[in-house]
UniProtKB/TrEMBL annotation:
UniProt keyword Transferase, yes or no: yes
PANTHER family the record matches: C-MANNOSYLTRANSFERASE DPY19L4-RELATED, DPY-19-LIKE 1, LIKE (H. SAPIENS)
InterPro entries: Dpy-19/Dpy-19-like
A single GO cellular-component term on record: nuclear inner membrane
Record's protein name: Putative C-mannosyltransferase DPY19L4
Amino acid sequence: GVYELTHNNKTVSLKTINAVQQMTLYPELIASVLYQASGSEEVIEPVYFYIGIVFGLQGIYVTALFVTSWVMSGTWLSGMLTVAWFIINRTDTTRIDYSIPSRENWALPYFACQVAALTGYLKKHINCSAEKFCYLLVSASTYTFMMMWEYSHYLLFVQAVSLFLLDSLALAQTEKVHEVYKIYLFSLFLGYLLQFENSALLVSPLLSLVAALMLSKYLQMNMKKGTFMSRLMKIMYIYLVLTITVTLNFLLKMFVPHKENEHLLKFIEVKLGLNTTKNFTMNWLLCQESLQAPSQDFFLRLTQSSLLPFYILVLIICLFSVTQVIYRRICGEPLKETVKLEDGRIGERPEIVYHVIHTILLGCLAMCLEGMKYLWTPYVCMLAAFGVCSPELWMTLFKWLRLKAVHPILLALILSMAVPTIIGFSLWKE
């Protein structure tokens, strides 16, 4: 069983390897434990049990997106629209749409659950019990996600950058953001121990970034408030974090022996034109369609399903609102403790700003590599659906257009009629 996998001498000739570590077989091990513990040997074949788990995880994935959109907008209609767009754009929400979902689809449902919990955790006005529940769910799902996929720490790095930018703009509670950083550190440490001392986690950019953020924050806290050095540190905060991150990552790679994911880093260097290679495998990868820039067909599909136009509209409104908030902060105006619907200040909600930044960063990845579209498109569905069904976002737009204040009930009725129309139009296009 497990011993044979950890001391495998059949896969590689004349070598005994730890197949669990090198092939990341943790999902298969968990599936086998569930298969035996549930007494399914006499009921169903192992392969069908495996397929059932995979499809069950996809159900969790879609449900997490549904809940996230619901939490953001306050209406279940946005969740329904998220699911509809996810299904309509199934070609772009998964890497393989003609077969059983591939390896990363074991992990992405847990990441979606983590994002849903993080959305609730970042909300300003949330009761203590709900906050604790969200915190525990973020912790559990972050660690599980890291165990399920060998490249999970790269995606968490993108998320950490989003939180860093959110904190730098002073649009979220710093204490909450740093609690998430601690969750990253704990998950990395626990993952390192339970993944047979996986050195890839030690040299990951996530660890370097989080360590740099914690150190930079410590230096800021030890500066006396109001002093020239304190103000200078605030200005140089981003530069300081980036410098420490790069330096720390360089030192870790110098002193920690590692071989994992070197091919990925070399590919990125060649892709960005920072290096050249004569390696056949690397050049073969560069020729793959999934590793090229997105084709016009990709944007055409998103446009035909009406997803891309609404996403761009929602993104523009949110970005303008965030810009207004930042300008007010520069002018010395504090954030409102309680934002009412009539205020039309969607950019003051930290969970919304986080998702805007997150989708932009994931979008940059998708624009470089079409194969990364399955990471970006689901959250595009979620953010676009939130915007369409959010009275607060439309109120923000109405205030800019200097329209008379629309009664929230009337606005809700208009949106409740618009959502089914959009879904029907998308289905008709499909």
